[in-house]
UniProtKB/TrEMBL annotation, chain A:
Keywords: 4Fe-4S, Iron, Iron-sulfur, Metal-binding, S-adenosyl-L-methionine. This is 2-iminoacetate synthase ThiH. Coiled coil: none annotated. NCBIfam families: thiH (TIGR02351). InterPro entries: Aldolase_TIM, BATS_dom, rSAM, rSAM_sf, ThiH, ThiH/NoCL/HydG-like. Pfam families: BATS (PF06968), Radical_SAM (PF04055). It comes from Reichenbachiella carrageenanivorans.
TrEMBL record, chain B:
Belongs to the ThiG family. Keywords: Cytoplasm, Schiff base, Thiamine biosynthesis, Transferase. Homotetramer. Forms heterodimers with either ThiH or ThiS. InterPro entries: Aldolase_TIM, Thiazole_synthase_ThiG, ThiG. This is Thiazole synthase. HAMAP family: ThiG (MF_00443). The keyword Transferase applies. Pathway: Cofactor biosynthesis; thiamine diphosphate biosynthesis.
Length: 373, 256
C-alpha cells in the first residue's frame, strides 16, 4: 500500500533547507527556462536567490494560469459548524486551553446559516470544525452534509483527519473535497505546537491524504500554516507531497493554500514572518511547478493583496468569510478562529473581479456528475 | 462550401465552440455570435440546469445556437450516463458531448469508459459526440457502438499546442464513416485551417478564443480559417510529392 511516509522519511529537513538556501541565480534562471520544471527547480524558485526574478516569475505565472483556468475565479464561503476542540494548538483560537464559549450548530441553526450563505450567492461551501470526536464526529458530519448538500453544488470539508472508512462513508453523502493542512512538516516543531489531543499525532495527519486518496475523494487541499516554521522548507515538503499524491492518486484533483498566521484570542507570534513579496514568490513558484493545481487565497489576506493576487496565479477565493460557528446568521458575536483581514462582501469581491476582467464562478460542480448522491 | 450534417442536423458553420474561460458572459456571447458557431458546448458543472434564469444559458439563448452539454467532471461510464440523462431532461436535448477524463491534471480521455458509455447512450437514443484520443481503432469501435461523430484531440486540452496527433488524425479521417471533429489543443487559426485541409469535418475551439486579448476578433479569425481550410479541402489540394513534375514534360513531343 503506497504511503507518503515512506518517501518523507528519505528526506531530512536540514538537508532540504541547506539545498534551498544554496540555490544560485543560475539555478533560478535554469528553472525559469525549463518548461518541465521539477522539484529541484521549485527549490530554486522559492530560494532567496529568486527574489530579483519576482516580476519574471509573476508574468509567467499569470500566463500559465490564464491558459489553464482562463479569466475566471472560483468563489466559496467557509461555514463553521463547531468550535469545540479537544486539541491544544499554540496558534488556534479554538484551542482546548482557550476559555471561550463553545458552540456546535444544531439542525435549525445549520438551516439558518445555509440560508444566509446562499443569499450571498454562494454555491460552493467549505464546512469547518475543530476536533471533538465525541460531539462533532463522523455521525455529526454525515448528518450535516446530508442536510447541507441539497442546497449547494459543491460541499468541501476542513475538519479533523479521519480514517479511510470514515471518508468512504462521507463521500457518498455528497462530500466533494477535503482540505487537510499538515501545519508543518517539521516533526519536532509540530509536536511543540500540538502538545495535546489527537492532533499531536504527526504521522496520522501526514498519512491523511493517502487515506483520502484510497477512499476516492474528488479533490483534496494541502498546505502548511505559514509562520510556524521556515516557509521555504515547509513549502518544499508540500510540493513533494503534492507530487507524490498526483502520481499515486491520479484521479484526484488538488488545491493548495498558504494561510499565514493571523491574530486570534490568546495568539502566538509567528516564529518566521513571511513578507507579501515572499508570499507572491511562493504563489508564483507553485504555479511554475504545477500548471493544473488550484491555488486558493483566503480572507486572511488584505484587500490590496487579494486584489493583486488575482493575476499572480490564484484560482480560488473565499469571500465574506466568518470564522465562527453561526457567524453568518445565528451568533455573529461568537469567537472567531482567527481574525479575517478582507472584510468586503461577496458582492464587492464580485465587482472587484469584474473590474479586473475576471468572471466570478459561483458554481463549478453539479449533483448530475455524482451517481452516488 | 458544403454543409455539415450530424445525426440528421445540418450545420452551415464548421466551427464548434466552447463556453469556458471567458472573462464575462457578455464577452462569451459576443465572441460566439461573431464566430457564427451553431454548436456550442456547455459544461454541466458550470450551469444550473434547474434554473430557468441561469446566466450562462441565458447568454446562449440564440436561435442559431444548438447546445451541446458536456459531461466534464465525470470519471466513468456510469457517471457519464447519469449526467447525460439529467441533462437531456433539463435541457431538452438528446445531444451530449461525452467527456470522461478521470485524470484531472491533463484531462486525458479514458477510452474504455468512453466506449462503454457510448454504447449505452446510443442505445438510449442519445446523439453521442465523444472526446477521445486520436486513436483510429477506437474511432472504428465507437462507430460500431453507435456514435454520431468522433472528436479526437489535436493535443492536450487547453494546451494551444496545435495538431501534435496529425498522423493519426489523417488515418481517422481516411477511415471515418461519421463526422470527425478535431477537438482540443487547437491554438491558432492556422491549426484549425490545417485540420480542415486534412479533411476534418469541423473543429471545436475554446481556450484559444476565450483567453485571447480580443475574443471576438479571434472568433472571427477562427471562422475564416475554418472556412478557408474547408474550401481548400473541397477544391482538392494538390498533394506534395517527392519527385519533380515538370509543367512542360520533356517527353511530350513523343505523343504529338
Amino acid at each position: 500500500m503506497p504511503n507518503f511516509k515512506d518517501l518523507f522519511e528519505q528526506y531530512s529537513w536540514d538537508k532540504v533547507k541547506t539545498s534551498v538556501y544554496s540555490k544560485s541565480a543560475q539555478d533560478v534562471e535554469r528553472a525559469l527556462a525549463n518548461p518541465d520544471r521539477n522539484l529541484e527547480d521549485f527549490k530554486a524558485l522559492i530560494s532567496p536567490a529568486a527574489m530579483p526574478y519576482l516580476e519574471q516569475m509573476a508574468q509567467l505565472s499569470h500566463q500559465l494560469t490564464l491558459q489553464r483556468f482562463g479569466n475566471t475565479m472560483q468563489l466559496f464561503a467557509p461555514m463553521y459548524l463547531s468550535n469545540e476542540c479537544q486539541n491544544i494548538c499554540t496558534y488556534c483560537g479554538f484551542s482546548l486551553d482557550n476559555k471561550i464559549k463553545r458552540k456546535t450548530l444544531n439542525d435549525i441553526e445549520i438551516a439558518r446559516e445555509v440560508q444566509a450563505i446562499k443569499s450571498m450567492g454562494f454555491d460552493h461551501v467549505l464546512l469547518v470544525t475543530g476536533e471533538a470526536n465525541q460531539t462533532v464526529g463522523v455521525d455529526y458530519l454525515a448528518h450535516a452534509i446530508q442536510r447541507i448538500r441539497p442546497h449547494f453544488a459543491n460541499v468541501s470539508m476542513e475538519v479533523q483527519p479521519l480514517d479511510q472508512e470514515d471518508y468512504e462513508r462521507l463521500i457518498p453523502t455528497g462530500l466533494h473535497a477535503v482540505l487537510v493542512y499538515q501545519e508543518t512538516y517539521h516533526e519536532a516543531d509540530y509536536k511543540k505546537h500540538h502538545p495535546k489531543g489527537k492532533k499531536s499525532n504527526f504521522q496520522y495527519r501526514l498519512e491523511t491524504p493517502d487515506r483520502l486518496g484510497r477512499a476516492g475523494i474528488h479533490k483534496m487541499g494541502l498546505g502548511t500554516l505559514i509562520g510556524l516554521e521556515d516557509w521555504r522548507v515547509d513549502s518544499f515538503f508540500t510540493a513533494l507531497h503534492l507530487d507524490y499524491l498526483e502520481r499515486t492518486y491520479w484521479q484526484t484533483k488538488y488545491s493548495l493554500s498558504f494561510p499565514r498566521l493571523r491574530p486570534f484570542s490568546g495568539g502566538l507570534e509567528p516564529k518566521v514572518a513571511m513578507s507579501d513579496k515572499e508570499l507572491v514568490q511562493l504563489i508564483c513558484a507553485y504555479r511554475l511547478l504545477n500548471q493544473e493545481v488550484e491555488l486558493s487565497l483566503s480572507t486572511r489576506e488584505t484587500n490590496l493583496f487579494r486584489n493583486h493576487a488575482i493575476k499572480l496565479g490564484i484560482t480560488t477565493m473565499s469571500a465574506g468569510s466568518k470564522t465562527n460557528p453561526g457567524g453568518y446568521a445565528v451568533e455573529p458575536q461568537s469567537l472567531e478562529q482567527f481574525e479575517i483581514s478582507d472584510e468586503r462582501s461577496p458582492a464587492a469581491i464580485q465587482e472587484m473581479l469584474r473590474a479586473q476582467g475576471y468572471e466570478p464562478v459561483w458554481k463549478d460542480w453539479d449533483v448530475a456528475l455524482e451517481t452516488n448522491v | 462550401m458544403e454543409h455539415l450534417t450530424i445525426a440528421g442536423k445540418t450545420f452551415k458553420s464548421r466551427l464548434f465552440t466552447g463556453t469556458g474561460k471567458f472573462k464575462s458572459n457578455q464577452d462569451m456571447k459576443e465572441a460566439l455570435e461573431a464566430s457564427e458557431s451553431e454548436l456550442v458546448t456547455v459544461a454541466l458543472k458550470r450551469v444550473d440546469i434547474k434554473d430557468q434564469n441561469d446566466q450562462i444559458l441565458h447568454h446562449l439563448s440564440h436561435e442559431r445556437i444548438h447546445l451541446l452539454p458536456n459531461t466534464s467532471g465525470v470519471r466513468n461510464a456510469k457517471e457519464a450516463v447519469f449526467a447525460a440523462e439529467l441533462a437531456r431532461e433539463a435541457l431538452e436535448t438528446n445531444w451530449v458531448k461525452l467527456e470522461i477524463h478521470p485524470d484531472p491534471k491533463y484531462l486525458m480521455p479514458d477510452p474504455i469508459e468512453t466506449l462503454k458509455a457510448t454504447e449505452e447512450l446510443a442505445k438510449k437514443g442519445f446523439i453521442v459526440m465523444p472526446y477521445i484520443h486520436a486513436d483510429p481503432v477506437l474511432c472504428k469501435r465507437l462507430e460500431e457502438a453507435g456514435t454520431s461523430a468522433v472528436m479526437p484531440l489535436g493535443s492536450p486540452i487547453g494546451s494551444n499546442k496545435g495538431l501534435k496527433t496529425i498522423d493519426f488524425l489523417e488515418i481517422i479521417i481516411e477511415q471515418a464513416n461519421v463526422p470527425v471533429v478535431v477537438d482540443a489543443g487547437i491554438g491558432a487559426p492556422s491549426d484549425a485551417a490545417k485540420a480542415m485541409e486534412l479533411g476534418a469535418d469541423a473543429c471545436l475551439v475554446n481556450t484559444a478564443i476565450a483567453v485571447s486579448q480580443n475574443p471576438t476578433q479571434m472568433a472571427i479569425a477562427f471562422k475564416m480559417a475554418i472556412q478557408a481550410g474547408r474550401m481548400a479541402y473541397e477544391a482538392k489540394l494538390a498533394k506534395p510529392i517527392a519527385n519533380a513534375v515538370a509543367s512542360s514534360p520533356l517527353t511530350a513531343f513523343l505523343d504529338a
